[in-house]
Design brief:
Blueprint (H helix, E strand, L loop, with lengths): L9 H19 L10 H18 L11 H24 L2 H13 L5 E3 L6 E3 H16 L2 H15 L9 H42 L5 H44 L1
Antiparallel strand pairs: 1-2
Length: 257
């Protein structure tokens, strides 16, 4: 019942109630929440996952739609879904931090383009890292792991008891610190070489004040940066896989404890 003398099909109301958590997770998660993904596709995926949840779990939605308890249950469902997607989205911020460090040292921090994932202007190097992290995320079936965690969340956090405790919220906040650390570690190999180059260029400027640093330092930084990226990228790709595993592990820890 809607609570106003109106009725709604129980199956449709149960599906809509389940789609709240799934849709919130997809809206905040990478890949699924990108602006390049049409809204109709996102809603269709949410409905398909909702049907899967209803077929594997016994979900009892609140009896009345327009009731305070129903609004609180919907808010709890949305909070759980947003938390799961937010953890993954935080992990995807690590390459952007690395690109800021590397791009600033290389002198290409001004080069930016529109990121198709969020529709905002991001550094070109950061977009390259984000695309690589997205491809690695899909290659290790991270999207399927997210769907599996959504299904398991209805066992660990059933509707009506889905409010997250302080420990879970604290873990989400501390994972943001890990994302910053991961971004700095991702930029460490190339950033260290560029730092050494800047020290050498600074020593040269002190030894020969008439030397034009812009004519020597900027081409040298670009050349060393490109070569260092080419050499270090296999190791950076391996560390991106570590970031993906840690983010999926953080989602699993939040859901299953």
């Amino acid at each position: 019942m809607l609570g106003l003398g109106l009725a709604i099909e129980p199956q449709i109301w149960a599906l809509i109630f389940v789609m709240v958590r799934v849709g919130a997770a997809f809206s905040a998660a990478p890949v699924f929440g990108g602006v390049s993904l049409p809204l109709t596709v996102r809603v269709s995926l949410t409905g398909a996952i909702g049907i899967l949840v209803l077929s594997s779990h016994s979900i009892t939605p609140p009896p009345n739609v327009f009731a305070l308890a129903t609004f609180l249950s919907i808010a709890a469902e949305a909070l759980v879904g947003l938390a799961m997607g937010f953890i993954l989205q935080t992990a995807f911020a690590a390459p952007l931090i690395a690109s800021e460090v590397i791009g600033g040292a290389m002198g290409i921090g001004f080069a930016s383009s529109i990121d198709p994932q969020n529709g905002r202007s991001t550094p070109a190097l950061g977009q390259f890292f984000s695309v690589m992290l997205t491809l690695l995320f899909l290659s290790v079936d991270g999207h399927l792991v997210l769907v599996d965690m959504l299904l398991k969340s209805y066992d660990a956090l059933p509707p009506g008891a889905a409010w997250m405790g302080p420990e879970q919220l604290k873990a989400i906040a501390f994972f943001g610190g890990y994302a910053v650390l991961a971004g700095l570690l991702l930029a460490l190999p190339v950033g260290f070489l560029l730092l050494c180059l800047n020290i050498v260029v600074g020593m040269m400027s002190r030894a020969a004040p008439a030397l034009n640093l812009f004519a020597v330092g900027l081409p040298a930084s670009l050349a060393v940066g490109v070569i260092a990226l080419a050499i270090a990228f296999p190791a950076m790709g391996d560390y991106m896989l570590v970031i993906i595993r840690e983010s999926l592990g953080a989602v699993q820890a939040m859901v299953l404890g």
